[in-house]
Amino acid sequence: MNRRFALIAALATAALTATPLAAAPARKPAAARPLARPAPLGDTVRVTMVTALGPIELELDHAHAPVTVENFMRYVDSRRFDGMTFYRAMKLKWGEQPNGLIQTGLRGNPAKVFKPIAHEPTSQTGILHKAGTLSMARLAPGTATSDFSILLSDLTGLDADPASNDPELRAGYAAFGHVVGGMDVVRKIWDSPVSPTAGEGAMKGQLLAPEIKVLTVRRSVMPVSAPAATPNAAP
Length: 235
What we know:
Blueprint: H1 3-17, E1 44-51, E2 54-61, H2 66-77, E3 85-91, E4 100-105, H3 122-125, E5 133-136, E6 148-151, H4 167-171, E7 175-181, H5 183-191, E8 207-220
Antiparallel strand pairs: 1-2, 1-8, 2-7, 3-4, 3-8, 4-6, 5-6, 5-7
């Protein structure tokens, strides 16, 4: 089994095992003030994720991955990402270190997740899996909801390979933006302790203990002087 296929298999297994085993009894939610209608999305969208270890600034490529970015912003604008946790740090043994990713999301919480979205492969968007890239977690293509990863290194094995006979490799994963500030915080999360026993299969030894809380996820202002950039886009 080559590294590319092993990486795809590990991520698919992770998306499956990230679903909680049991949901807590439903409670009637408290009345909340309606949120203001969100502003239309531009070609590029900035988001600030405040974690327990510091802020991470994200830039989303709405121009090239509209379905994925609009889905992500639906969670942001409804504040459903507030209080989630980074629960996984995948630390690959090969290559230059740090090599791997961290993962967060709502882990299939039926009270919070929206319907799955259409898959936007890298062969369509041109957004490649480089260090700092944001990438959706999924099982089969078209099953992604809320969970996503931030890459610590270039992981080209996650890019779509249209020439492959394997449907997983042909589809790859959906990248939709990148970190523009706070990669030191990403590294702190990746360096955080993991449980040696928690998790099953590919997830064993990758679950953070304790998990790192995400306090808020909000839109932020795009710098006026900064042009919309897509440094991870294919030439």
